[in-house]
Amino acid sequence: MKKLLLSVCLLSAILLSAVAENYPYRSDVLWVTVPNHADWIYKTGEKATVEVQFYKYGIPGDNVVVNYEIGGDLMPADTKGSVTLKNGKAIIPIGTMKEPGFRDCRLKATVDGKTYSHHVKVGFSPEKLKPYTAMPADFNDFWEKAKTEQKEFPLTYTKEHVEKYSTDKIDCYLVKLQLNKGGQCIYGYLFYPKKEGKFPVVLCPPGAGIKTIKEPLRHKYYAEQGCIRFEIEIHGLNPEMSEQEFKEISNAFNGRGNGYLNNGLDNRDNYYMKRVYLACVRSIDFLTSLPEWDGKNVIVQGGSQGGALALITAGLDQRVTACVANHPALSDMAGYKAGRAGGYPHFFKRATGMDTPEKIKTMAYYDVVNFAKLIKADIYMTWGFNDDVCPPTTSYIVYNVLNCPKEALITPINEHWTSNDTEYGHLLWIKKHLK
């Protein structure tokens, strides 16, 4: 059954979330934005308004002038104006949209010589959003050939116990997984429950960047509660390297003009992410080879780039039984060609020379929306409206094309983050969907 679970925060919850996540720690000011539809969603043609509130030291900002600009999701402003707060509040007309999408109200207020910014997005019939990106006629053939070629290389890896990430309840191993005869590899931390038995396996691909594996024990509750979890990096860099070493490599090989997500984009066979996508499939090969695997449950879970790779793996590999993805990147990347927001890495906004037939063609072979159409596994997605990294436009587009059992947790106030409670909820959802 397809279910859409909508998380709508009451004002007190919004205040708590905003203090915790959307503002600098211990900020003197607080913005609160309250659309006149509690779920922040309107039908196309309906007019939206937002009540804006501004507090400093918890005191309403009376007579504070708020300047605003309103435009489409990640699009230039088409409306500008200002309002003067009375008792810390004012109403701003957001307008409407004739076509499905999002409007973003960007706010600025200068108080005591310092300028403060905020924004709020509302959606118009987002459940009707459709991708710009089309599936190439030979999409399946291309990826089946790539997977077949990879299978010719035998499963090869090393596995070393890591004491510092092991506890009385879990064991951690550093795995070096070979990908091909060219010697390319990935690394990952593999976490086991410290008990006898057979367990579900969970693959966790990373967010974007060249960096170490973030806080390996932050999701230790997966192994503590009976899952084998494999947290990977995608560049073949040992996560035991220092932060400084990772920073130096990133500075050298991941700039705006030479980043890995641009690398080889002129040719679908040479694109950097081909190896990465196949690495996720090879990771499933590895996990399902483990004698401790329960033989039934294969889960992928991640956020941002990791959310994209989770969905891509679910589309590429029919062994996947469940997938959890937060605000997936790499989704309808060429959507800017339709005059609206496209997905991270925002090739058409953040780099030059991207709008060529060759690069647009390659994007289609690597776009999440085309893999999402192939997924048969159970899917759980979550995203926020105020996200400018992986915009709600593209998250809805991915969700809308899914033709499988699916659920969504929509948290409108979220920018590019998920709370600890939401992330723990992923494990609870997974446990409910075990085969």
UniProtKB/TrEMBL annotation:
Signal peptide location: 1-20
UniProt superkingdom: Bacteria
Acetyl xylan esterase domain mapped to chain residues: 129-420
Pfam families in the record: AXE1
Swiss-Prot/TrEMBL keywords: Signal
Keyword Signal assigned: yes
An individual GO BP term: polysaccharide metabolic process
Active site annotation, chain numbering: 304, 387, 416
Gene3D superfamilies from the UniProt entry: alpha/beta hydrolase (3.40.50.1820)
GO MF assignments: carboxylic ester hydrolase activity
Name this polypeptide is given: Acetylxylan esterase
Organism: Bacteroides acidifaciens
